Fold these 2 entries.
Entry 1:
Amino acid sequence: MPESGTLPRLINIPSLHIKPHYYRYTGRYKNTVKPPYKDIPHKDILTNMDNSIGPPTFSRGKQGYLSTRIILSILSPKFFFRMVISLYSDNMVTKSGPQSGQSAPTVDSLTANSTPTDPSPSLSSSSSSSTTKRRRAMTDLERRAIRRRKEENPSHKQDEIVEWFRHEFHVDITQGMVSKALDSKYAYLDTDKRKPYQLSKSKRTPVPDWPALESALFEWQQKMQKKKAIITSDILKEKAHEIWQLLPQYSDVKEPQWSNGWLEGFKKRHNIKKYSNHGEAGSAGIEEPDNIRQMEAVRNKCKLYLLRDILNMDETGLFWKLAPHSSLATESTSGGKKLKDRVTVAFTVNADGSEEFDPWIVAKSENPRCFKHIDRRKLGIMYRFNKTKWMTGLIIEEYLRWLNNIMAARGRKVLLLMDNFSGHELGVELCGGKTGLSNVEVEWLPPNTTSHWQPLDQGIIASFKLHYRKQWIRYILREYEAERDLFKTVTLLHATQWTTQS
């Protein structure tokens, strides 16, 4: 009868205190059922193994190896390692036999007193190496950090950047990974506006089918981007076709079709997105010497005034009746004619934003029907009209005299910055020149630079249009709910009210 805790011809585990029938294999022992392996508390097995008296031993029988495979499939890698050590030690004892007075070697003795000829150290080292962090892909956030480090310290070598990276991110990288991060392939990270949490999600970049072509195409795209050229999908496809013809390594390969799928993959690999060009800053001549000198003169003139006395006036076109041209739907529907009813809105602001001036609106009708029985002075606007619905020299003259009267009543002298639009120049001449008014001095901004240097073009007018659109969308929703034709109910009076509220 075997001792308690001992399995006949199987495994001797003195300290586990598990009933032997848990390890019995169905068919090998009669009158037994399928062993309930799931009933063995896995955590208790590991705890008891740490406190075990000695290593488990294996038998050499067929039943022993068969049962061993069953046990290995349910136990932990730690338990498996101990059994492998025990198998090796048992094999050594069987061949040479233990000397009298000596016991079989244990796991602790094998791992502690190992020699170069003993294979057990390799097993121990493999177990310890399994705790080392696995190699992982580098994120775009880490690549950008490496590129910025190199840009800030051009004299640093790549091995120095490796040491800095390990100290900063506590992650081991190789010099090759640093070299790849500094490649022109990731040049887009230098100007990437994504937030850090977005950059930390992107890791492995898909490998392109034609790396040489895509590298040359991306380099050309970046060159054109710096020149502020407009690049479309069709232009990229055509340029890819031209580059393909020039690369000798693809001379014997059939040219791809440059499909939309390839283009989407190329844009994703190089973080190329579609952006709308707003304003006129792309055509500004801010680097021309004459414009720079004139702008310096304007800045020197502004130093003579307080911030609240430095004003800027500019106008913009407003399509006050234009509805959204696209719709969210489950099927395509026919659209109507786009209504492009336009008015001109002129704004006046001061440098510190401490004052509000009534906007000037220029429309086509002298007396719109919607203004009937309406006191225009209470609308908070200055309404003028002409056939072109644009600022003319006469309206500018009237505007300047209106502003001069306001400043004279307040006892202030102000500097008004304007662009050299022909209507502005004519209006200033009708007032006697830039210094022809008693309380308003006019100063011209450099030509073709107002989109870059004019205060109202730095987001103020754009913010107004966003707020106006919000009011317009709310009105559209109300008319939808009331089942009314919004294009027949909206009037210029609504547009003037939304303008003052925006």
Entry 2:
Amino acid sequence: MRGRWSLALLLSLVACGANDQNEPPKKGTWYDTSLDRDTSYLPMGGVAQTTLELTYGRVAVTAYLPATKQAPIAVFLPGGFCTRDRYFWFGTLLASHGVATFLLEPPDSISKADDATTVISGLAADNRNADSPLFERLDLSRIVLAGHSLGSYVQSALTDVSTCTPGFCPPGTKTPDGVRGLLLFGFHAQNPDDPATPTTPMRAIEVPWLIVNGARDGLATPEKAHATVARLQDRPATLLEVQGMNHFQFTDYVVLATDRELARDQEPTVASRTARATVASYAVKFVRGVLFGESMADDLGAGSDARVSPIVRKPRVRSTGTGGLARPVFEPFGKPGLDGDEDNADIVATAAYGGATYLLVRNETAGASVWRIRQGKLEAVPFPGRKPSLNTIFGAMAVFRDKLYIGLSSGTQGGQRASTGAEVWTFDGQTFAPVAAREVDEDTTVTLGSCTQTGESVKVEVSPAIEPSAWAGGMLEADKLLFDVESNEGGSVTLHNSESTTAMTTCNGLAAGATFALRRGYDEAGFGDVWNKAVMAMAVHEDRLYVGMGLNLLRGTSLFATSDGAHFEPVLDPAYFGKQPTGTPKSSSVTALYSSKGSIYIAATGTENYGARLAAWQAGQPRWIIDDGAPIAAGFGRGTFQIASIAEQGGRLWLGGFDFNGAELFSLDDQNRFTVHVGEGTDVPRGFGDLTQIALNLFEARGDLWIGTYANVATKDELNDVSALVLRTSTGNAWQLSSSHAFGVNAVGVTRFFEQDGVLYGAASRGGLSGRNSFGPARLYVVRDEAPLSNQVQP
């Protein structure tokens, strides 16, 4: 279908070219048939200008140059088979307002994305060349990409070449740095031949878009334009429909003998010059805003203008500055879902090991998988423990004693266990081995006899005989049935069904003659308790590996540790974390572990609105820092549900909150006193101004603190308007809104930042937080600072 789409889209946007002899062009008096250089009808500026004819590669260029130094630039691609002189009005208009404007024309009059990038590279070289007439006249850090019809589509595709229609973006084409806005005329990106016209989100660099179409456009019809705008993700995007204007009125003149699509266009009800004057007035406002920093409303003031009908997609979160940092650029890396697998919904953990970075990937269908990146290559690492039950909604990785430790989860949040227990595996660069899993040792198999009710439990006869009193605290399991062993005799076991926090135990499923397996010990899944559904965190501290358990709503969370890497034991059991007055666990999960300055910090949930908790373990002694009765009240005294992440940067220990009222950000000093940096009582409101941002994932990279948020998203449809954010700071005082839609396509969470081989990567998740639901594939991006082509003189 993509090949068909390529042809169909091309035909739908070819404004000019050979006419179909069976479809004569429309007659009338609305169009001009030759170029008239009169500009008196346009809102011209006062900057003097000159023109210059240039050639870059295959592309002929007419330059409209303002008589100024370091002018920003506009690069314009014409409609299909249209010559560049038909946009004279646009070139001379912007030049008169101080914008160096370049009208491009490839030899076949079919624009491709690398036409624009080739010209921009050539302009940069000439700008540095003392022998060039362009020497030091241009500022390549301020660029508007503009176009009409097919040219507008190609310019929009250049903002995300990974999804560009084949044929329009040749291999190796990259989005140029320095782009500050898109100005598109007669634009749509819908497949006219496909009844199920695309509704998938359109990713792009996060700059303002101004789309100007005619209300009587017969090619880029209002229906197609509206559908396209609905697909644009969260960015300032404005569609202005000029009343009475058609598709060809964006050109200075038509060629009756060759304009093949003129017959498909509608008759306008407004004069061409009047229509272009309207377009020009808004084009000037837009370029003055994005290139010169002049104030502009989201609708450019069109709300009260009867000549136009505006549709505005406002940003949910507005940038308040750069934070003194360069603008980041995000380039897709690999395929969605890493290999195109739509079920690979989240990258839940990463760790650097053996010259590569390993990724733990959530999958609700086939089970979690392991991947790695090294030397710019992404590859799957075959994992023998993969199974559907290990979906890994949460997970963790750490390196200890020259091995990679991988903590995987089974099941989801909630009062139903629906889990086979979390597992821990190791990888030595060649081989995976289980440490806490069913595969560690052989099971003891028994055949069931009679079953009798004994109070709230059941007693089942088993054979062959088993060691008396040896299986208390173990499990009896077959297929999807699992019971806790309360006690045992030589020929029987007393069982309790703990499938939910309120489960009743009966003999259902325990038929005589059935075969079950007995399991016990810390080397089993869940470290012997399958209600330990998740490995939430791992950390190495003072030559021990610590593993925090999660989602145990029956008994409560616990912390396990190992010194030799093979044998784990609990170092903090559920009793340490305590119980609520109702008898339920006070903490169901250890949500973060962090080793710093001689302490390991242990973050835990607080159930029943108790609030976030934090303990510090130092010299073998844990003590609560954040808890009722501790120096800082549970939930910071502000209702924070949990501490989602911990990072260290700029001499501070940063704590990222999880709060359904909007996430807050805190830090701890050396005296364990906390400061609120984002939230109530600060200059930055909860959720950085968007209360749907409920959790903060913190990462230190290259000296900066990066924050990826989790958005409160319950359905796929909500992703049309809600997305995780990316922010960063170097000082902790000023924040840069780096991405308002998760690097490009709206996502539930931005879950990871990591560096490998000198390249910084980011990961965006589309996996739901609360259950076995996925709204699309995870995506990886290369993250770099923008570096516009140099304006410096060549040596």
